[in-house]
Amino acid sequence: MKTLISLEEVLKRKYFDKSEVITGKDKLKHQQVKWVHVVEITEISNLLNGRELILTTGLGWKSNTNLFLSFVNQLIECNTTGLCIEMGTNTTHIPQEVIALAEKHHFPIILFHEIVPFVEITQDIHSILINKQYELISNLESYSQLLNKKLLEIDSHQEILAYMQEHLDIQVVTIFDEKRMEFIPNLTYKERNELLEKIHQADRVGDTTIAKQPVMILGKQFAQLAIHSKNKDITEFETLILDRTVTALAQHLLRDLYVKEKKMSKESEWLSNWLDGNYNENFLNEHLSFNDPVLSIQGGVVCICKRNTNAHSGEIDGTYFKLLFRTVLERYGFHLFSTEIHDQNIFILVDKRSCENWKERMIAAFKRLKNDSSGRINLSTITIGVGKYVLSLNEMHKSYQSAKETLVLQETLNKENKSYFYDDLHLFRIISLTKKHSNLVEIVNDYLEPVIEYDRKYNGDLLLTLKTYLACNGSKQETAKKLYIVRQTLYHRIEKLENLLGYNFMSFERRVAIEFMLVAYDYLTTSKKNKLLQFNNI
Question: Any idea where the PucR C-terminal helix-turn-helix domain is (predicted)?
Answer without folding.
Answer: 462-518
